[in-house]
Amino acid sequence: xxxxxxxxxxxxxxxxxxxxxxxxxxxxxxxxxxxxxxxxxxxxxxxxxxxxxxxxxxxxxxxxxxxxxxxxxxxxxxxxxxxxxxxxxxxxxxxxxxxxxxxxxxxxxxxxxxxxxxxxxxxxxxxxxxxxxxxxxxxxxxxxxxxxxxxxxxxxxxxxxxxxxxxxxxxxxxxxxxxxxxxxxxxxxxxxxxxxxx
Length: 198
Known about the structure:
Layout: H1 3-19, H2 23-30, H3 45-52, H4 54-79, H5 81-96, H6 109-119, H7 121-138, H8 141-159, H9 164-177, H10 179-187
Helix pairs in contact: 1-4, 1-5, 3-4, 4-5, 4-6, 5-6, 5-9, 6-7, 7-8, 8-9
């Protein structure tokens, strides 16, 4: 195995492990709360908002975004675009399937945004715009996340087509991770987002 392949393996492993960092779990433990046993059980921003309030949710959102951004920028600067693309996928997978949490992580939307925005700002913020629009229209987070995931491969094909195989994997995982939300939406039971502190 050549040194370049070894470095790409290092990029994947390091980015995956950084993706394992779960701010919602850390904050929850500090408050005596197991976020995976409260609310929806998802260790992400929306459930943190419902269970622990706005301040905790903001911290979770920022950390989840920045870990994706940092990995992509770091490896892109050191090793180039291919490494950045691998880091984008790996940090996302680390968030969604963290070995530190028995592969039961978050849904990956915030980390995906941070990584995509670092890889190609037009792609990341284009997806974010679609997410925000869908959330405003539906007053629910999950339809926005799903809409962003559906739009991401299309925008990737238009802006950075060499990343499309990676993006398809990420988009499919986001949609699959929202399957319970989809079922609740079909039943009309998906809760609207609330900004009231609990």
